[in-house]
Design goal:
Layout lengths: L1 H17 L4 H4 L7 H9 L4 H7 L1 E4 L14 H10 L4 E3 L4 H14 L7 E4 L12 H5 L4 H17 L4 E2 L23 H16 L12 E5 L18 H17 L4 E4 L3 E2 L2 E2 L4 H11 L5 E3 L7 H5 L5 H11 L4 E2 L4 H11 L4 H17 L12 H7 L3 H14 L1 E5 L12 E5 L25 H6 L5 E5 L5 E2 L9 E2 L7 H9 L3 E7 L20 H11 L3 E6 L7 H6 L2 E4 L7 H9 L64 E10 L1 H4 L2 E9 L5 E11 L10 E10 L4 E8 L1 H4 L1 E2 L5 E2 L3 E8 L6 E7 L1
Parallel strand pairs: 1-2, 1-10, 2-3, 3-4, 5-6, 6-9, 12-13, 12-16, 16-17, 17-18
Antiparallel strand pairs: 7-8, 11-18, 14-15, 19-20, 20-23, 21-22, 21-26, 24-25, 26-27
This protein binds beta-D-glucopyranose.
The site of beta-D-glucopyranose has 9 residues, from loops.
């Protein structure tokens, strides 16, 4: 292999000329320990080549951010040959990847292979549900399996690094990127972060079907003020440590190889320039030894934020803060070289960053075989695999949340019903693919109409009603939501009139959430609310199937419509999943990972809020914490989700052995009291009643997904240790504070059993 020969030659020179201790003489390159390999390679590199490793270029064909002012294909090819590029993104497919890899490996002086990054967010070609939807499954094994499949497909197409998982906790449904995360809770978010990292990276990173993961966006991006994309973030350290950081910490502990910083500032410092986050917390505090990549051009944005006057100053701030790689910012490539050569930036900062990047390349096995990721035969086989379709279908069904089912409209009868299917989104094969779907083929989702048509013994009439948007939908542009064109409206109402059950598929298009898609209105977009109300006037037997990438404020629907199914954007197999749930071939078990507000004015709204000094009205007057014009409770609470069967919780027992072995054991019985087999997510919450700082009213600290047959009971046990009982105080010390606690158990954050214990 050319690369090996080339590197070997250099290593020999290094051994003879630069390094006196000759471990290299005794072992083959592949057997040398990673650190030694990294050091020996580093010793050969010029400043330009080092900075080159820290340079991440977008490919030549599409962008996932604003196009840079300069840096066209010709320059990128030249820089590849010069060894001035360490990684590329948005280059995919065996052929394309090998083309650029070959330049780096065979035409550059040192032949260092490239990292090939891509936003493999919820699948590569075969798409799984959007991450928020997957999180609604609370099924960690299934989530891990979904990331595994994504890694298998992506790696077969040459990708060795994904920009996932996004582990930003967010309480703000206005922010479009909530679709990409795990919702509002740090405990659930941490477990999901771990599952996703393990799924992508597998047990051996150097396997050809595992890829490096990236915990993003470090940190605070989910708290963008007013839910406005790229906005400023100002949060206290208590929220930072107790709410925002835990999923990042979990990803780090799971061995995630890279972190991505974020576009926001945090308490006045743009994150790309934050030493506090990247060095004090991540690298020094947590001993993270992978690397930090900037977000797209976020180094440049230090200029717009007004903390750097030019690229040179931006580069200095970024490297000092610990940003190791510049994503499509074209900042390091020149400015950092100058800063080093002038002696303004210590070369050791550079060496540290390059070491981190090379380490990941070695661990991926790229130096042994730079072409191991990407194989034309595997690529075709894996990206069209039936097994992958079955697996994403399974994930899609697990992600569906039954929000309301009054009058037992669901499950639909399999025979003898006249069903009207209404809504533009019901026949949409693109929207269900969600927002991050760059590698999937257009229009490849199974639509709800197609899924429903497979159940042949009913009469199904479809009427799409008015279009949700005008023109075309794309990743880069705003959707033009239809608020004026009523074509199809009347016909839809007519179709509904004569049906036994009306299934209405309404909500957001897949391109209404995701990056750059904040909303200030959380209602059904366009003419859909009006359509729902008009159909309701003629037929009240409505099953509302929601499509959305965020919690919606569907208050009217929650009051009037008997049955509501949260179906998010469920990926390639959407229609099959929805139909199987509607017809009862799958009993839904999803639970909301994010609170649904009554109206947008309640946002941010979340279950683990603080009690305040005036939680309730004592004297029938206004002086307590509430709104004058809407109830203060949410529309649907965190953790909520129904089943076609019912569950009963009883026999709560708390055994407190904290004094002797630092544990509190909680047991209770969960019984299926309905007449179908079903799954329940049993949830445990605690409240620390008196703390040195204010504590949330409830905190999720355990859950278990249990399947029970009718009449079956399971005894469930949770053991709480310091990890669950403690929190960070305002000096950033993690402590368990002794005193009174409460325990709550139930099938949502609106719990049904309550107990208490005292830590002494
Ligand atoms: C996003 C990242 C993404 C990157 C590369 C940015 O705009 O914020 O999450 O990974 O682009 O596509």
């Amino acid at each position: 292999m050319f690369l090996k020969i080339k590197l070997f030659a250099f290593l020999v020179i290094a051994m003879l000329g630069l390094l006196s201790q000759s471990v290299y003489a005794q072992a083959k390159t592949s057997e040398l320990r990673v650190e030694q390999k990294v050091d020996s390679l580093l010793a050969l590199m010029t400043v330009e080549e080092k900075v080159g490793q820290m340079n991440l270029y977008n490919g030549f064909w599409n962008v996932t951010g604003p196009a840079p002012e300069h840096g066209g294909a010709a320059i990128k090819y030249k820089h590849l040959k010069n060894g001035w590029v360490g990684a590329m993104l948005n280059v995919r497919g065996t052929e394309e990847v090998n083309k650029v890899q070959r330049i780096a490996v065979e035409e550059s002086r040192l032949g260092i292979p490239l990292l090939i990054g891509f936003d493999v967010i919820h699948g590569y070609k075969t798409l799984s549900p959007i991450p928020l939807a997957e999180s609604a499954s609370w099924d960690l094994e299934a989530i891990k399996a979904s990331a595994r499949i994504a890694a298998i497909e992506a790696s077969s197409a040459g990708i060795n690094w994904t920009f996932a998982p996004m582990v930003d906790v967010s309480r703000d449904a206005r922010w479009g990127r909530v679709m990409e995360g795990a919702g509002e809770d740090p405990f659930l978010g941490s477990l999901i972060a771990t599952a996703r990292v393990n799924g992508f990276q597998g047990t051996n990173l150097s396997d050809a079907n595992t890829i490096a993961a990236c915990a993003k966006h470090f940190a605070g991006y989910g708290f963008a003020e007013a839910g406005k994309e790229y906005n400023t973030v100002d949060v206290g350290l208590s929220t930072l440590y107790n709410t925002i950081l835990p999923p990042f910490k979990a990803a780090e502990e799971a061995g995630v190889k890279t972190f991505m910083n974020s576009f926001n500032d945090l308490n006045g410092v743009p994150v790309t320039a934050s030493e506090f986050l990247q060095r004090d917390i991540l690298k020094n505090g947590w001993d993270f030894n992978g690397f930090v990549v900037s977000d797209w051009a976020s180094m440049n944005e230090l200029i717009s934020w007004g903390v750097a006057k030019d690229k040179k100053e931006a580069a200095k701030l970024a490297i000092t803060a610990g940003s190791d790689m510049d994503m499509e910012g074209h900042v390091y490539i020149k400015a950092l070289v100058d800063l080093i050569n002038e002696g303004t930036v210590d070369i050791e900062l550079l060496n540290d960053a390059v070491r981190r990047i090379l380490r990941v390349k070695y661990e991926l096995g790229l130096f042994d075989n730079p072409y191991k990721y990407g194989n034309k035969i595997d690529e075709e086989k894996r990206t069209s695999s039936q097994a992958h379709h079955e697996s994403v279908l399974d994930m899609a069904k697990k992600s569906i949340v039954l929000l309301k089912n009054e009058g037992q409209l669901l499950p639909l009868k399999k025979k003898g019903q006249r069903i009207a299917l209404i809504g533009d989104l019901a026949n949409d094969k693109s929207s269900p693919l969600g927002s991050w779907r760059l590698a999937s083929d257009e229009e490849t989702a199974v639509s709800v109409l197609e899924g429903m048509q497979k159940y042949k013994s009913n009469t199904l009439s479809f009427s799409k009603g008015p279009v949700v948007f005008k023109g075309t939908s794309t990743f880069l542009k705003e959707l033009d939501i239809n608020t004026t064109d009523y074509t199809g409206f009347k016909e839809a109402v007519e179709t509904a009139k004569n049906a036994d059950v009306v299934v209405m598929v309404l909500g957001e298009h897949g391109f209404q959430s995701g990056e750059g898609r904040s909303r200030t209105n959380l209602q059904l977009p366009g003419l859909q609310q009006e359509l729902l109300e008009k159909v309701y006037e003629v037929n009240q037997n409505i099953v509302l199937v929601l499509n959305n990438g965020r919690p919606l404020a569907i208050t009217w629907a929650a009051e009037h419509i008997p049955t509501i199914v949260e179906a998010w954007q469920l990926g390639t197999e959407t229609g099959n999943a929805v139909a199987q749930v509607l017809y009862g071939d799958y009993n839904p078990s999803g639970k909301l990972p994010m609170t649904f507000p009554r109206n947008v004015g309640q946002v941010p709204i979340y279950y683990n809020y603080k009690n305040t000094g005036r939680p309730i009205d004592k004297d029938n007057n206004v002086f307590y914490s509430h709104y004058s014009d809407v109830e203060k409770t949410p529309l649907f609470v965190f953790g909520h989700g129904l089943s076609y069967t019912e569950f009963e919780y009883s026999n709560l027992k708390v055994t407190n052995t904290y004094k002797t072995n630092k544990e509190v054991t909680v047991t209770f019985d969960l019984k299926n009291v309905g007449n179908r087999t079903g799954k329940e997510v049993a949830q445990l919450y605690i409240r620390d009643l008196v703390g040195s700082i204010t504590r949330p009213i409830k905190e999720l600290k355990g859950f278990k997904l249990v399947e029970l047959k009718p009449g079956e009971t399971e005894k469930i046990t949770f053991v709480l240790s310091s990890k669950e009982l403690g929190f960070y105080n305002n000096k950033q010390q993690f402590n368990v504070e002794l005193g009174d606690f409460k325990i709550f158990i139930g099938g949502s954050s609106e719990t049904v059993l309550e107990g208490d214990f005292i830590l002494k």
